[in-house]
């Protein structure tokens, strides 16, 4: 859906930043209000548009996904996220320290590191929020490949303006002004010639 449609609000509800006023959100049939917020969020990994990194080495930033991980596991996670190659081009490799504002690496590189962290965390549920915006085309392709690997065999919620990133989803929810107005697969929604088809065709023609 467009900006302001309610996509991010839905994710915040899923993580219980606040609870629904009516009805229920269930995971595997269990109302999420039966989980503590800590346990619920501990079962989820997030890759956000504004990738959050802290002032420490790249190794430590990836290891934040699993503080018990070995150096070898950190490298494997980076390889799975297609981040290993760019990391090894840096003067200090995995020991390169990210500065306070994380301005010494690019936006796309930040997102690849966040994906590597999510790979290492290996949680059951994955939330990807606008994960391919603000990056160049080549890096976007790397991020898309990394996300495809990351989503394999786990429940994944993908929030995107660029509909090419969600074409292969099992179920697409189309939102506008806080409501789910359409749902189905990519092909089903195109066949309806409704809001999604209009949005998709406008992007495709661009």
Overview of this structure, please?
- With 206 residues, this protein is of the alpha/beta class.
- Helices cover 41% and strands 15% of the residues.
- It has a 3-stranded parallel β-sheet with strand order 3-4-5, sandwiched between helices. It has a two-stranded antiparallel sheet with strand order 1-2. It has a two-stranded antiparallel sheet with strand order 6-7.
- Strand 6 and strand 7 form a beta hairpin.
- Helix 4 crosses helix 6 and helix 6 packs parallel to helix 7.
- The chain is globular, with a radius of gyration of 18 Å.
- It starts with 6 loop residues before the first helix and ends with a helix.
Radius of gyration: 18 Å
Q: How confident overall, as mean pLDDT?
A: 89
The major sheet is characterized as:
3 strands, parallel
- Low-confidence runs of at least 5 consecutive residues: none
Number of E-type strands = 7
Give the count of helical stretches: 9
Distance between the termini: 17 Å
Give the helix level as a range of percent.
40-55%
Secondary structure category: alpha/beta
Series of H and E elements: HEEHEHHHHEHEEEHH
- Lateral arrangement of strands in the main beta sheet: 3-4-5
Strand proportion, as a percent range, falls in: 5-15%
Structural shape: globular
């Amino acid at each position: 859906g467009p900006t302001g449609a309610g996509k991010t609000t839905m994710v915040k509800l899923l993580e219980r930043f606040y609870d629904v006023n009516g009805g229920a959100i269930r995971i595997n049939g269990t109302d999420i209000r039966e989980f503590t917020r800590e346990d619920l969020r501990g079962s989820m990994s997030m890759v956000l548009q504004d990738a959050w990194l802290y002032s420490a080495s790249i190794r430590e930033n990836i290891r934040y996904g699993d503080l018990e991980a070995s150096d070898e596991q950190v490298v494997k996670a980076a390889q799975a996220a297609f981040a290993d190659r760019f990391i090894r081009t840096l003067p200090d490799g995995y020991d390169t320290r990210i500065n306070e504002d994380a301005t010494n690496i690019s936006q796309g590189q930040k997102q690849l590191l966040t994906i590597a962290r999510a790979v290492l965390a290996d949680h059951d549920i994955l939330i990807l929020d606008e994960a391919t915006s603000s990056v160049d085309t080549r890096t976007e392709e790397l991020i898309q490949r990394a996300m495809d690997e990351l989503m394999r065999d786990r429940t994944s919620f993908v929030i995107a303006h660029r509909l090419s990133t969600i074409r292969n989803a099992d179920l697409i929810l189309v939102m506008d002004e806080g409501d789910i107005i359409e749902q189905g697969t990519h092909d089903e929604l195109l066949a309806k010639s409704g809001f999604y088809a209009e949005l998709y065709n406008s992007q495709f023609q661009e």
